[in-house]
């Protein structure tokens, strides 16, 4: 019995354990059944009922939830809560200062404006949602036994959907069948990642061999897959059939919502994810919101305003208490009793008065500041979008602003971190040269062809005529000797200077295909290499005809043909036809290559690869196989019904792949077809061969390589072709065995490595090509573990990664390629301008060090006269790396003693030092113990170049500089590997280039070209910062003109006001609001032309010169002074008169309005008709409201009586006199300060503004002074004016200058000389 009880307990425990496992599994996976099996069942019996439907809703509100939800969101702002509290406090009778209903008006207005803006945005989203939800699609109906049209919103998980060509996918669909004979479906993913090249998706493996149309009623499988996630490049799961067979599911089987079906007439799939659970919707995060540096500083000043408010209220409360205390037991006639009718003590009166004064002085906190800033920022973004200088005609794209609230940060950048490939360069890869089996082929004719695409000046043409292309070299010595002579020309070759017409023509030709311009496609082969390819192919054809084994082929020729086979098939390129754009090339009926499925199980492997086929010693089987292949290939001499192989179009996912495939095609090794299980290539003399594609091990940033496993059609051998970065491939080369061949292998590896170094020194991107032949036993052993990795759901990526590492070992080196990536237009000029603007530029790239250094010289990041510090550590951090960094840090600290990271947050610029560091050393340098020393060395350098850096290292470098130096950082890149860097920086900029839109979608701003960064920062960034900084300071000043405070000294600090409450409530909200919005949107302190010609003016934003802490206090002091003037001049003017309170208070309000508007006029730099109109409108609005209010509301708020007040004032000459004398007196100190500062101590921005006022010819002459050398006259200026100005020894001054069309000696015009000396001082900062 005890034993039975123990067994029962164990069974129960096992059941609980299984249930727990099942529950855990359910939490991590999703099970999808076909809905047609549950059409007649109740809703609660459908296992798919818990999944989201396909109706999308991106709106935030409904009719019922809008008001409470929007108010709740707005009350997340502390300022709104504060103003609502003040308004509600005014409803308390004992402390109220204004009419309660009227006091609510400002906060209700602000909340209403924000609510209307939110409502409009939400309504636009609602219309978009409705349009999408009501699109049609075909869904299978079991009742009608056919596909019926339904709205997208009616689609459910588990539905079968029929998809047609050019139709947009309504949900994430698992592909079950396709009308394509190869069971493929081509899709375009431009809406997801911006890539216009076609991508192939394949039918689920178990449905691949269906001979008839797919019948949904016969579907009885169950799908297990991962939970919904936003990873576009991952899908894991498996499908379980009734027989118990389980097949793995991959991302190649999933069609994502938003993609477009291409080149496929029909396809059928089952919905896996719907609605908000689709990957596209999970990636739709909308605009990004950040807090700018200026906004953070503004919040500090708002806090100080609160402190000032409390101090003023406390002062008034104490004054009121003392005032009441002096009466003792005799209560004054104006005393207000408590609600119970009793007298209040002085202390209680002071407390109540404190609360009353908070209501009265609430204007000190700018209630409309936050809304005004939002409005101004939206307007600024609109005008940036309208700038045609930021539009790229070639790509038909313009700037995008994805973060609406950090535009002012663009004017305060200090560090720029840039990717290289696709950001500084075109990312249009052009095949330049290669080395195969240790022999280098220079492709001189191809180099001359590329020279035709450049518009070179006479100097460059002369240089080209003397040896514009590097001759073919078989030795390192000859390469090095030529490299010295042509160093400057090699640098110039990276400049993309092709004509705009040629670029546009190429853009039109490649409109529907990425990486297919004539410059990239029309490659001229090297004659010697072409002869070897033809010789090799001819011998192979002869050997195949005579049934001889291919092993008799010489090794050097075998490497050549394998090299080009690897270039052709080791990729994911899709083949299409140019005369039928985006239509797949179909095979003719006369050609039917054997369609064999990839090896997916051990049983398949044993059945298909019998010992007779894999035994290398069996010549008979080999010959029979060769004869079969030969006959099948000869029987299909016309494989294509579309144009010849030379006219095929290749749609690649990366420019490197396209360049290599086009290079192979130039040698008659053409890719003519790609299926899920085979790749068809055309070789000279051999015709078309079909390589059975067994596995594709895709590229990743960790392995830095990709591989394909194929069965060679001529040898029946399982061959692995690998291409990747030389830094990893060279480490995977099989070490030579002792024997005759070992010396040759070592020599080939040595020669190839030398050529790789020389390619990199010429700025070429390098790739290594290798192969590996597997025996039957090796492949079977690897396959078993690989299949386990493929069918795993949890940790599949890690298992596949380990599987790839096990396969990619002991490779045989075939050769290497050199690909040129040209610089974009204007990159050197842009970098030079940004440097003059005080910006530190770091380039973070994954390229080889030599390649990156060469490109850095070409784009002027590194200068020839600079001394380069190179940090390359081959040992651990506490050995070589540590010592190396310490040594460099020591020298840097002694040469540049202020390079400590804590010395200053401003970049320390040094002009003759550059730093180059590789990825391995960077990993050591980013260690906690060394990061400070690395940062000290980097800050003392003019340029920093990080090579072989991973995406994680890029983000770590940006984060290190941003957090340690407390500087503003900008990261710019174009690819998915730049996303982490872009997101970490204060401002992220994406380039909408050749690598899709991943970087753009993660960025705050998107640009078509790198060169547009110059105007975005130096012009728009400067303007946005200057406008907002001055507007915020003006807001603080305007609200600090507290006239009522001075009146408290004459009314016993009772909280009374001499100004009508209508004027108090609406003064800042209406009467003075519009001009500052116009100025904040349109004001330009310096013209765009001057800002770009004098980039050093940008430094004012880096140093926050427009908004420093002392400026806030100066504005507050100025506001208090102006309030004193506006109060006491009318006070003394109307002293001893019989005017009533409002007849005296209304002129004070009018004078304050005039003073504030004139103050804005002094601070406005650019006057337009909108500035004049806004000021006129404000004045007209005030007088219109005053006249109407005084005429129509005599007893609206008794006992006050404003009747006919303004009408009487307009008849009084004293009123007009006050309107002149008071604003002049109030603004005289500020005007005098501005005049003295602009004349005696001008800032660089003020001098730039003076330049804008000069005639165009004079301005051009002054701006060109830095390129002219007249030292004698600057010495005279130094002698006469050394006490007033700071001079640099290299300033240049002409002897004469053109003024108003007349040439005048400079030293004879004292006024001009003073002005020019100021300008020279600015130019001397360059």
From TrEMBL:
Record field: compositional bias (Polar residues): 477-491
Question: Quick one: where is this thing mainly located?
Answer: endoplasmic reticulum
Q: Which residues bind Mg(2+)?
A: 419, 421, 974, 978
Give one GO molecular function term. Answer: ATP hydrolysis activity
PROSITE patterns, per database record: ATPASE_E1_E2
GO biological process annotations for this chain's record? phospholipid translocation
Q: Which UniProt keywords apply?
A: ATP-binding, Endoplasmic reticulum, Magnesium, Membrane, Metal-binding, Nucleotide-binding, Translocase, Transmembrane, Transmembrane helix
Q: Which residues form the active site?
A: 419 (4-aspartylphosphate intermediate)
**Where in the numbering of this chain does the P-type ATPase C-terminal domain appear?**
1000-1243
Listed Basic residues bias regions: 14-25
Asked if the keyword Ribosomal protein belongs to this entry, the reply reads no
Location within or outside the cell = Endoplasmic reticulum membrane; Membrane
Q: State the EC number(s).
A: 7.6.2.1
* Catalytic activity entry: a beta-D-glucosyl-(1<->1')-N-acylsphing-4-enine(out) + ATP + H2O = a beta-D-glucosyl-(1<->1')-N-acylsphing-4-enine(in) + ADP + phosphate + H(+); ATP + H2O + phospholipidSide 1 = ADP + phosphate + phospholipidSide 2
SUPFAM superfamilies attached here?
Calcium ATPase, transduction domain A, Calcium ATPase, transmembrane domain M, HAD-like, Metal cation-transporting ATPase, ATP-binding domain N
The family database entries (InterPro entries) matched by this protein are listed as:
ATPase_P-typ_cyto_dom_N, ATPase_P-typ_P_site, ATPase_P-typ_TM_dom_sf, ATPase_P-typ_transduc_dom_A_sf, HAD-like_sf, HAD_sf, P-type_ATPase_IV, P-type_ATPase_N
Ranges of compositional bias, category Low complexity? 613-634
- Leading EC class: translocase
Q: How does it sit in the membrane?
A: Multi-pass membrane protein
Similarity field? Belongs to the cation transport ATPase (P-type) (TC 3.A.3) family. Type IV subfamily.
Q: Which NCBIfam families match?
A: ATPase-Plipid, ATPase_P-type
Q: What is this protein called?
A: Phospholipid-transporting ATPase
The organism named in the record is Sphaeramia orbicularis
Which lineage? Eukaryota, Metazoa, Chordata, Craniata, Vertebrata
- Name the gene that codes for it: atp10a
């Amino acid at each position: 019995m005890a034993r039975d009880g123990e067994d029962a307990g164990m069974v129960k425990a096992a059941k609980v354990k299984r249930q727990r496992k099942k529950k855990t599994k359910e939490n991590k996976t999703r099970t999808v059944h076909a809905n047609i099996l549950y059409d007649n069942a109740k809703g609660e019996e459908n296992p798919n009922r818990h999944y989201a439907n396909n109706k999308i809703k991106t709106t935030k509100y409904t009719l019922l939830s809008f008001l409470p939800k929007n108010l709740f969101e707005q009350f997340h702002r502390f300022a709104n809560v504060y103003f609502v509290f003040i308004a509600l406090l005014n409803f308390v009778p004992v402390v109220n200062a204004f009419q309660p209903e009227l006091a609510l008006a400002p906060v209700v207005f602000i909340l209403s404006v924000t609510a209307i803006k939110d409502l409009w945005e939400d309504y636009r989203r609602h219309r978009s949602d409705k349009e999408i939800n009501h699109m049609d699609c075909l869904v299978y109906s079991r009742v009608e036994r056919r596909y019926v049209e339904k709205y997208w919103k009616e689609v459910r998980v588990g539905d079968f959907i029929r998809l047609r060509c050019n139709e947009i996918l309504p949900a994430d669909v698992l592909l079950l069948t396709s009308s394509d004979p190869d069971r493929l479906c081509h899709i375009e993913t431009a809406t997801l990642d911006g890539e216009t090249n076609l991508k192939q998706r394949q039918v689920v493996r178990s449905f691949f061999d269906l001979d008839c149309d797919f019948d949904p009623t016969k579907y009885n499988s169950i799908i297990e897959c991962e939970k919904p996630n936003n990873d576009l490049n991952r899908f894991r799961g498996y499908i379980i059939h009734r027989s118990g067979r389980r097949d793995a599911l991959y991302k190649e089987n999933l069609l994502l919502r938003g993609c477009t079906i291409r080149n496929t007439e029909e396809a059928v799939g089952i919905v896996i994810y719907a609605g908000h659970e689709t990957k596209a919707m999970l990636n739709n995060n909308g605009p990004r919101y950040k807090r700018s540096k200026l906004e953070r500083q503004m919040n500090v000043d708002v806090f100080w305003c609160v402190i000032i408010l409390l101090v003023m209220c406390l002062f008034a409360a104490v004054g009121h208490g003392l005032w009441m205390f002096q009466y003792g037991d005799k209560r004054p006639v104006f005393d207000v009793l408590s609600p119970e009718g009793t007298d209040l003590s002085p202390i209680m009166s002071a407390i109540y008065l404190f609360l009353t004064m908070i209501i009265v002085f609430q204007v000190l906190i700018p209630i409309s500041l936050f809304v005004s800033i939002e409005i101004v920022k939206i307007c600024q973004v609109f005008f940036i979008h309208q700038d045609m200088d930021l539009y790229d005609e070639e790509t038909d794209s313009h700037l995008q602003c994805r973060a609406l609230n950090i535009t002012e940060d663009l004017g305060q950048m200090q560090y720029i971190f840039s990717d290289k490939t696709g950001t500084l360069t075109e990312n249009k890869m052009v095949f330049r040269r290669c080395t195969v089996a240790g022999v280098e082929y220079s492709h001189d004719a191809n180099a001359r062809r590329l020279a035709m695409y450049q518009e070179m000046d006479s100097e460059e043409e002369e240089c080209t005529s003397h040896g514009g292309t590097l001759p073919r070299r078989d030795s390192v010595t000859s390469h090095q000797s030529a490299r010295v002579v042509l160093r400057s020309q090699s640098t110039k070759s990276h400049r993309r200077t092709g004509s705009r017409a040629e670029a546009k023509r190429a853009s039109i030709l490649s409109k529907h295909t990425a990486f297919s311009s004539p410059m990239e496609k029309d490659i001229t082969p090297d004659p010697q290499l072409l002869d070897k390819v033809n010789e090799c192919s001819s011998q192979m054809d002869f050997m195949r005809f005579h049934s001889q084994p291919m092993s008799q082929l010489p090794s050097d020729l075998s490497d050549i043909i394998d090299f080009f086979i690897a270039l052709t098939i080791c990729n994911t390129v899709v083949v299409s036809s140019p005369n039928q754009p985006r239509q797949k090339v179909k095979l003719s009926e006369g050609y039917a290559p054997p369609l064999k499925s990839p090896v997916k199980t051990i049983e398949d492997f044993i059945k298909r690869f019998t010992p007779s086929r894999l035994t290398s010693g069996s010549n008979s089987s080999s010959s029979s196989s060769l004869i079969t292949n030969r006959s099948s290939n000869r029987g299909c001499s016309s494989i294509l019904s579309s144009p010849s192989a030379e006219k095929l179009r290749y749609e690649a996912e990366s420019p490197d792949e396209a360049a290599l495939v086009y290079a192979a095609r130039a040698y008659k090794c053409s890719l003519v077809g790609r299926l899920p299980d085979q790749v068809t290539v055309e070789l000279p003399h051999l015709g078309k061969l079909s390589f059975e594609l067994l596995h594709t091990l895709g590229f990743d940033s960790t392995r830095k390589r990709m591989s394909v496993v194929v069965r060679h059609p001529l040898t029946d051998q399982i061959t692995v072709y690998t291409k990747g970065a030389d830094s990893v491939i060279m480490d995977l080369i099989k070490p030579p065995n002792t024997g005759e061949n070992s010396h040759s292998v070592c020599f080939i590896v040595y020669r190839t490595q030398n050529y790789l170094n020389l390619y990199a020194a010429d700025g070429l991107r390098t790739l290594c090509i290798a192969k590996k032949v597997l025996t039957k036993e090796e492949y079977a052993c690897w396959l078993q573990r690989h299949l386990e990795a493929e069918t795993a759901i949890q940790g599949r990526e890690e298992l596949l990664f380990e599987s790839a590492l096990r396969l990619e070992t002991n490779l045989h080196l075939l050769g290497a390629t050199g690909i040129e990536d040209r610089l974009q237009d204007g990159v050197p000029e842009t970098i030079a301008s940004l440097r003059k603007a005080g910006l530190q530029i770091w380039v973070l790239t994954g390229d080889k060090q030599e390649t990156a250094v060469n490109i850095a010289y070409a784009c002027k990041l590194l200068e020839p006269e600079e001394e380069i510090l190179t940090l390359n550590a081959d040992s651990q951090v506490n050995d070589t790396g540590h010592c190396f960094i310490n040594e460099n840090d020591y020298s840097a600290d002694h040469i540049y003693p202020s390079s400590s990271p804590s010395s200053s947050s401003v970049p320390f610029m040094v002009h003759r030092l550059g730093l180059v560091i590789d990825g391995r050393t960077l990993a050591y340098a980013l260690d906690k113990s060394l990061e400070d020393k690395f940062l000290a060395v980097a800050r003392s350098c003019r340029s920093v170049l990080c090579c072989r850096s991973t995406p994680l290292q890029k983000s770590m470098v940006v984060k290190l500089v941003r957090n340690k130096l407390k500087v503003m950082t900008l990261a710019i890149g174009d690819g998915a590997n730049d996303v982490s860097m872009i997101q970490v920086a204060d401002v992220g900029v994406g380039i909408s280039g050749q690598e899709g839109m991943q970087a753009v979608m993660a960025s705050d701003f998107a640009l078509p070209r790198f060169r547009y960064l110059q105007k975005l920062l130096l012009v728009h960034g400067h303007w946005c910062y200057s406008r907002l900084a001055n507007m915020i300071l003006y807001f603080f000043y305007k609200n600090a003109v507290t006239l009522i405070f001075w009146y408290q000294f004459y009314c016993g600090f009772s909280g009374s006001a001499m100004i009508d409450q209508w004027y108090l409530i609406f003064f800042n909200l209406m009467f003075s609001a519009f001009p500052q919005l116009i100025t904040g949107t349109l004001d330009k302190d310096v013209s765009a032309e001057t800002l770009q010609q004098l980039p050093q003016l940008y430094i004012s934003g880096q140093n926050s010169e427009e908004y420093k802490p002392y400026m806030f206090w100066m504005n507050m002091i100025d506001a208090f002074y102006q309030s004193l003037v506006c109060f006491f001049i009318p006070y003394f003017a109307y002293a001893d008169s019989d005017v009533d309170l409002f007849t005296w208070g209304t002129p004070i309000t009018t004078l304050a309005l005039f003073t504030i508007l004139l103050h804005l006029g002094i601070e406005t730099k650019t006057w337009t008709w909108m500035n004049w109109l806004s000021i006129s409108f404000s004045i007209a609005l005030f007088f219109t409201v005053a006249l109407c209010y005084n005429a129509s509301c005599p007893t609206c708020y008794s006992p006050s009586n404003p009747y006919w007040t303004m009408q009487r004032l307009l008849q009084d000459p004293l009123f007009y006199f006050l309107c002149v004398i008071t604003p002049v007196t109030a603004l005289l100190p500020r005007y005098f300060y501005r005049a003295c500062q602009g004349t005696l101590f001008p800032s660089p921005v003020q001098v730039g503004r003076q330049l804008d006022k000069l005639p165009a010819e004079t301005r051009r002459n002054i701006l060109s002074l830095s390129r002219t050398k007249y030292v004698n006259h600057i010495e005279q200026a130094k002698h006469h004016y050394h006490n007033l100005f700071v001079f640099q020894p290299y300033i240049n001054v002409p002897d004469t200058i053109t003024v108003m069309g007349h040439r005048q000696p400079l030293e004879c015009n004292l006024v001009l000389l003073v002005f020019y000396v100021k300008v020279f001082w600015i130019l001397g900062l360059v």
